[in-house]
């Protein structure tokens, strides 16, 4: 693995470049320290050492804001390139050492269901040398873990931008309605969105999943009604049990998840008008630059899965 010392200047360390990039992207020393899982004094100290080494000021610091100076903006792309080169060197050395297997760490998004199963199946067939480690967590956390190099990539839904990362479009995930199996609407093969106007909608809070909430609420408004919000979606088990046994209500599920979701007294129904049915795009977030061998294998598996139609849940 590449030494912590860079090859250009004896006093410059990769660690300092890593801290500099974190502060440059966060524009806040405290958030950069949290991202790096170290104390803020250590970040400040290493950045000051980097400034002394180069003889320039990299950040304008004030009580209200931290901004890159002209020198900082000039250094940033080179610092990112150094960190990318270190990661590439480490992966190359894995191959040189003749390791039989390598690990790819992938961040997962809730509700991938059959989509994720298809990607993992393709990976096992096309790259049997690759071990897969799945990591869950909030979207913002997973995106930061990709920036930091802990994750090689993460699935994300709905987000159309992620500073410092590339978002590669994969597929659109269709949503279906989850209803009490005994409700009259469940007797139909498909459900008109407007017919759900009288039922409370159980969905995640907007703070926790703004993309999902916005796309469902917008679809309801396009169908001519403002959804009546019921209790927030908590867990699959508790929410589906409440829908099945309590006051009639509904929620949405990704079709790929509904197809494998074990349920009792719940009916999953697609929406009658596919053109107006709510759906969300899914992306693979990666660091910029040429993909590594393991990331190339993951991208190929994702592209193969993207060509497959979404399997609807069995009724």
Walk me through this protein's architecture:
By secondary structure, the protein is an alpha+beta fold. It has three domains: 14-96, Arc Repressor Mutant, subunit A (Orthogonal Bundle), CATH 1.10.10.10; 102-163 and 286-305, Periplasmic binding protein-like II (D-Maltodextrin-Binding Protein, domain 2), CATH 3.40.190.10; 171-279, D-Maltodextrin-Binding Protein, domain 2, CATH 3.40.190.10. Helix content is 40%, strand content 17%. The strands form two sheets. Strands 3, 4, 5, 6, 7, 8 and 9 form a seven-stranded mixed beta sheet that branches. Strand 3, helix 5 and strand 4 (130-135) form a beta-alpha-beta unit. The longest helix has 27 residues, at 70-96. The N and C termini lie far apart (53 Å). The model is unreliable at 1-8 (pLDDT under 50).
């Amino acid at each position: 693995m590449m030494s912590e010392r860079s090859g250009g200047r004896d006093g410059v360390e990769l660690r300092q470049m890593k801290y500099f990039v974190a502060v440059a992207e966060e524009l806040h020393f405290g958030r950069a320290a949290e991202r790096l899982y170290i104390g803020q004094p250590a970040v400040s100290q290493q950045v000051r050492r980097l400034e002394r080494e180069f003889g320039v000021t990299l950040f304008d610091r004030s009580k209200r804001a931290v901004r890159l100076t002209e020198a900082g903006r000039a250094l940033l792309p080179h610092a990112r390139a150094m960190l990318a080169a270190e990661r590439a060197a480490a992966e190359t050395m894995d191959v040189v050492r003749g390791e039989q297997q390598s690990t790819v760490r992938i961040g997962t998004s809730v509700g991938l269901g059959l989509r994720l199963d298809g990607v993992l199946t393709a990976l096992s067939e096309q790259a049997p040398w690759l071990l897969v480690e799945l990591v869950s967590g909030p979207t913002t956390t997973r995106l930061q873990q990709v920036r930091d190099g802990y994750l090689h990539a993460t699935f994300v839904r709905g987000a159309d931008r992620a500073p410092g990362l590339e978002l590669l479009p994969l597929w659109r995930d269709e949503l279906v309605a989850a209803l009490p199996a005994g409700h009259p609407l469940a007797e139909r093969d498909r459900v008109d969105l407007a017919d759900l106007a009288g039922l409370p909608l159980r969905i995640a809070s907007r703070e926790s999943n703004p993309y999902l909430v916005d796309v469902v609420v917008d679809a309801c408004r396009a169908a001519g009604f403002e959804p009546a919000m019921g209790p927030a979606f908590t867990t699959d088990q508790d929410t589906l049990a409440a829908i099945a046994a309590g006051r009639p209500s509904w929620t949405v599920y990704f079709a790929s998840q509904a197809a494998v979701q074990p349920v009792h007294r719940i009916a999953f129904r697609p929406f009658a008008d596919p053109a107006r049915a709510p759906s969300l795009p899914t992306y693979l977030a990666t660091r910029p630059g040429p993909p590594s061998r393991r990331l190339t294998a993951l991208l190929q598996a994702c592209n193969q899965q993207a060509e497959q139609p979404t399997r609807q849940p069995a009724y």
